[in-house]
Task: inverse folding
């Protein structure tokens, strides 16, 4: 693979003097990925290379959007050029993401939450989201009750629904693995799940209704999860 | 004049004492001659020489990205915050928004500034937004707003340019997707004398016609921001009284000035990337 | 107004063909109407309607103290009021951004002393000055606000009457000024160099002027230029896109060209140049009769509404000239009439366009070369105020300024 097209950035050389140049092999890319800056021309956009995350295409060339390093991922025989930031990536919830949220208001029809984490990335600023009554459960949707499923202060796992014209995110807990993870009883003590609809206070042993999530331990990988699902 | 009643404001009608000192009795012509003498400026710069720039990133820990710039004595801090939902908006916007706030510190100028934004600061905020709107890939964060705050600690001329340049660095530092790096430069013009990166006195003198050698002519200040690799002008602002030829000449001068600034910023950002990558690999 | 992609493409193609959606060419303006002196409480006012854009400007003058750092200068301030009537988007604080943008651009454009001399507003150094408030009310938004506002502001400032200061009494720190009590004893502001703003909009590969709402939406970037005579007093880039250097220079060239034409059209509409001379049968010099443009100092920049000719002929010998007077008046005795008595026949002619009283006075059409309704023709429009008149000024590029100048006083 000698078709190198990237800027090989010498740390001390002025970037501007460099044109489309020196060959970078895939191996070099792994060991010492080239650094790029916003607006930097990376390579021609053609059948072999296409623009991926962190890049944009303009007049047949691929340019970088970020200050970071270049990465090439091969997908379906096409080499996708990606740029990743060296620092923290800006995370924004998108459709289908599993998010961790905190409930803060409940009404008859919906409950309002703050999204605190997306996947395992903690957000610096929470995003507002809404969970409607009909999105609580997958089956018997009409029988679900907000106040029997969530209480203010609960930490829930939920999935982001497709973003509509509405301005806030919509969440859904209509999966076994989604729902309340951490909750406190009326007296403020932590509760433990006892069934998928109930939790019990660790101090007072009062039972309260919740839509409990079946928390999958982190070390269980997707394969075993699928197998388990099948066996169920 | 809007007054913030929650703060203790100074007496309404105060005047800086410097207006009454002897310095102030000098004519404009004299003042200008003191600034520019034999193709040299008061700080020993050539007419078209930019001041030295110092840039540092990551000063503001709570911000996603930040940059501090020193351009001569002009000092500006710019911080960029994570995208957030656009407040008070209900409709869906396909492109994200940029919110800019430009503020002079109360002690940054010779005359004390108020805590609230005045019209000049609002105008500068609008110009900053204009410069950055076409720089940031706004389609990447629909329905969100990126907040950018520029705070001038010391104003020694060309503060807006310094703020825009720093904002570009801060955005790159924050990892906000951008089409290009942005740099900005200011040019002051008084008749046939063009002063690149004017100091605050030079800028002030270029804002009004000063009689030189007995005649009054063209004068003005131009601020231009450029996206270098695409050769695009993202912001252009001029005040004064200038002919078309003056402006076309100025555009060329400013373009060259921007071209000279770019490597500095690139070098700094490359250093920053290398440093963070090293830190990351050490963490692992 | 939200446009879909297909509509935008349609607009874009129109611009490329040099045939815009409303039939204009790229450098054409939409028709304009201008009225001055319509707010009785204001010192000067103007209303400009540019197709669907409607702007009302009123000027108020107050006495103030000059800024300590500028003791010789008066003050000029612009306020833009975005009424929610203009567009529902302005409801609440919605119009704030537009208002600030316009007023800041205007202050920047008027800031240079070469353009508008604030020193003329000073009454007494460091103590008293005039403060001119220019209040701009947007009544309807149909695109191209900057241009419309700047034209209306210039017209309103031109119309402004500054009271004459008769006497200044200084008693210690107290300053008393006495203003002339005579109602019409006023001074006009010098606004000949006041800037005109022109928005040059880039659509596709071309630049256009006077964009309407649809075209504004299609534009990626535009340049607002403030032009005073042959100089730029402010240049501001607006819109969300960036421009290439050569495009910027193209925009500036187009902007200055159009602004100068626009300024000339406005000035023609505001002021009225008439031939002023007279001759009688006893005088041997007949240039005033035959060739009024040849009279030295025979053209006056009148501040009146009509150019007139009063020609007195003898009945016997028929057609022999007794006297001819070319002048300007606010209210002609007879607009167009022939009055006869026993010995004389008196022709009264009046007209409303620049130098239109150059004819012989006999024919109904005051100026001989202005017989047909072409350039510089006079059309009487009954029903719009007192002797209102429509003036059509057209240029080589079909830039129309229909100005209905109505005088209330």
Result:
């Amino acid at each position: 693979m000698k078709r190198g097209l990237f800027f090989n950035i010498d740390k001390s050389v002025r970037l501007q003097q460099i044109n489309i140049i020196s060959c970078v092999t895939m191996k070099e890319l792994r060991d010492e990925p080239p650094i790029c800056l916003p607006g930097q021309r990376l390579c021609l956009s053609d059948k072999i290379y296409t623009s991926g995350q962190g890049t944009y295409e303009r007049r047949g060339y691929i340019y970088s959007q970020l200050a970071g390093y270049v990465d090439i991922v091969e997908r379906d025989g096409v080499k996708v050029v990606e740029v990743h930031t060296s620092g923290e990536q800006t995370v924004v919830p998108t459709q289908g993401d599993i998010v961790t949220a905190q409930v803060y208001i409940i009404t008859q029809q919906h409950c309002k939450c703050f999204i605190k984490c997306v996947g395992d990335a903690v957000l610096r600023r929470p995003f507002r989201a809404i969970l409607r009554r009909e999105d609580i459960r997958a089956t018997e949707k009409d029988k679900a009750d907000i106040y029997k499923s969530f209480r203010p202060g609960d930490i829930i796992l939920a999935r982001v629904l497709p973003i509509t014209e509405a301005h806030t995110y919509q969440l859904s807990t209509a999966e076994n693995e989604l729902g309340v993870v951490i909750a406190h009883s009326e007296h403020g003590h932590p509760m433990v799940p006892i069934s998928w609809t109930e939790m019990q206070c660790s101090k007072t042993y009062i039972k309260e209704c919740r839509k409990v999530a079946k928390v999958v331990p982190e070390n269980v990988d997707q394969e075993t999860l699928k197998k388990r699902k099948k066996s169920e | 004049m809007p007054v913030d009643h929650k703060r203790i404001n100074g007496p309404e009608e105060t005047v800086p004492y410097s207006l009454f000192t002897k310095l102030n009795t000098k004519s404009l012509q004299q003042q200008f001659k003191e600034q520019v003498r034999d193709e040299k400026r008061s700080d020993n710069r050539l007419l078209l020489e930019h001041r030295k720039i110092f840039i540092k990133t990551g000063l503001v820990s709570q911000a996603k990205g930040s940059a501090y710039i020193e351009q001569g004595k002009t000092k500006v801090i710019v911080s960029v915050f994570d995208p957030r939902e656009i407040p008070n908006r209900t409709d869906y916007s396909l492109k994200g928004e940029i919110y800019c706030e430009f503020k002079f510190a109360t002690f940054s100028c010779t005359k004390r500034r108020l805590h609230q934004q005045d019209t000049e600061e609002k105008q500068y905020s609008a110009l900053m937004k204009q410069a950055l709107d076409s720089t940031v890939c706004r389609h990447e964060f629909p329905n969100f707003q990126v907040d950018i705050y520029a705070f001038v600690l010391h104003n020694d001329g060309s503060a807006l340019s310094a703020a825009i340049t720093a904002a570009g660095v801060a955005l790159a530092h924050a990892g906000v997707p951008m089409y290009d790096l942005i740099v900005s430069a200011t040019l002051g013009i008084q008749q046939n004398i063009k002063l690149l990166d004017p100091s605050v006195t030079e800028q002030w003198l270029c804002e009004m016609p000063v009689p030189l050698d007995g005649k009054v002519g063209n004068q003005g200040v131009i601020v231009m921001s450029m996206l270098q690799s695409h050769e695009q002008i993202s912001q252009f602002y001029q005040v004064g009284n200038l002919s078309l030829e003056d402006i076309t000449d100025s555009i060329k001068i400013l373009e060259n000035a921007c071209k000279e600034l770019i490597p500095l910023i690139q070098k700094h950002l490359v250093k920053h990337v290398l440093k963070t990558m090293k830190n990351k690999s050490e963490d692992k | 107004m939200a446009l879909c992609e297909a509509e935008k493409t349609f607009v874009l193609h129109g611009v490329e063909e040099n045939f815009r959606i409303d039939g204009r060419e790229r450098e054409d303006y939409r028709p304009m109407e201008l009225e001055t002196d319509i707010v009785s409480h204001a010192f000067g006012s103007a209303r400009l309607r540019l197709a669907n854009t409607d702007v009302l400007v009123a000027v108020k003058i107050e006495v103030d103290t000059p800024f300590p750092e500028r003791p010789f200068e008066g003050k000029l301030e612009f306020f833009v009021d975005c009424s929610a009537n203009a567009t529902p988007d302005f409801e609440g604080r919605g119009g704030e951004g537009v208002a600030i943008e316009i007023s800041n651009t205007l202050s920047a454009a008027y800031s240079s002393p070469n353009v508008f001399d604030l020193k003329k507003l000073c009454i007494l150094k460091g103590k008293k000055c005039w403060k001119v408030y220019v209040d701009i009310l947007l009544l309807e938004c149909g695109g191209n606000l900057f241009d419309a506002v700047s034209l209306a502001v210039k017209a309103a400032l031109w119309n402004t009457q500054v009271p004459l200061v008769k006497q200044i009494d200084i008693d210690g720190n107290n300053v008393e000024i006495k203003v002339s009590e005579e109602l019409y004893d006023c001074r006009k502001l010098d606004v000949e160099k006041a800037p005109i703003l022109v928005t040059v909009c880039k659509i596709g590969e071309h630049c256009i002027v006077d964009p309407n709402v649809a075209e504004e939406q299609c534009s990626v970037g535009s340049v607002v230029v403030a032009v005073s005579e042959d100089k730029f007093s402010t240049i501001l880039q607006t819109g969300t896109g960036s421009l290439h250097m050569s495009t910027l220079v193209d925009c500036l060239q187009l902007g200055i060209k159009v602004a100068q034409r626009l300024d000339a059209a406005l000035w023609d509409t505001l002021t009225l140049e008439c031939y002023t001379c007279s001759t009688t049968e006893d005088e041997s010099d007949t240039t005033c009769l035959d060739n009024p443009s040849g009279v030295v100092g025979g053209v006056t920049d009148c501040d009146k509404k009509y150019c007139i000719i009063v020609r007195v002929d003898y009945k016997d010998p028929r057609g022999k000239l007794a006297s001819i007077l070319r002048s300007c008046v606010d209210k002609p005795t007879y607009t167009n009439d022939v009055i006869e008595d026993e010995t004389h026949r008196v022709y009264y002619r009046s007209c409303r366009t620049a130098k239109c009283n150059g004819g012989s006075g006999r024919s109904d059409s005051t100026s001989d070369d202005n017989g047909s309704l072409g350039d510089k023709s006079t059309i009487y429009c009954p029903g719009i105020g007192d002797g209102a008149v429509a003036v059509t000024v057209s240029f080589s590029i079909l830039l129309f300024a229909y100005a209905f100048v109505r005088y209330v006083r």
Notes: The helical segments of chain A are 26-31, 222-231.
